[in-house]
Amino acid sequence: MPTDLHGQTALITGATGGIGRAVALALSKSEANVVLHYRKNQEAAQRLADELGCNTRIVQADLRVLSEIERLAADLKNSPLDILVNNAGVWRATPLGTTEAAVTNEIIDANLRSVFWLTQCLVPQLSDGARIVNVSSVAAQTASASGRSLYRATKAAIDSLTRNWALELAPRGIRVNAVAPGMIETAMTEEHLADEATRQRLLARHPLGRFTTAEEVADAVVFLCSDQSRHISGQILNVSGGFVV
Q1: 38 noted as active-site residue
Q2: Which of 68, 146, 203, 207 could lock onto 242 through a cystine, CB 3.0 to 4.6 A?
Q3: What is the pTM of this model?
Q4: How do residues 79-89 score in pLDDT, each as one tens digit?
Q5: Cα-based distances in Å from 163 to 84, 177, 195
């Protein structure tokens, strides 16, 4: 693992989830000072902070609410950020014909609006040369009849934001990239993968024969935050065992 992040400050949204926790651990091992965001699970956030040590703090906000985002940005105004990992999001089914408006709003707010507004609010306090890593999904690059079209659409929008922000922020030396995991076994996907037929169907789409791990996604995030990727920007890095080629 690269260890050139000493003294740099990284904010990870949704840090108590599977990918967020793995990213926090990996960045901390690379000697970054980590800010852990959580929405409602304060106990899990505090346990992770205790595990990571003294160069860690926790912050709370419901990123689906603009006023909460603005409060979070204000709380961090005296902490210049070098790394922003936009990881928080939801994974819900939205089958056509039965999905309620409240569900569509939740997905768009959590997966897309929150990323745009949080990044916009934090851009003034990002250091020149900072790195933004958005957590996308290979679902943005594929189609399925599984009834998760809106989730896929929000992740495709994240890919578009990534490419456009890379150009918009380039004058400040800020690099913007995204990681696109394949299927990962986390609490979020547990119910979906409980069906053995679904599990085997998805496994068959991973040429390397297994699902992606959160730690493998975290390794990719650290790479994109490190000096080893110093001339990489505007890219979507698939971490999917060949799911998308």
Answers
A1: no
A2: 207
A3: 0.92
A4: 889 999 999 99
A5: 16, 7, 36
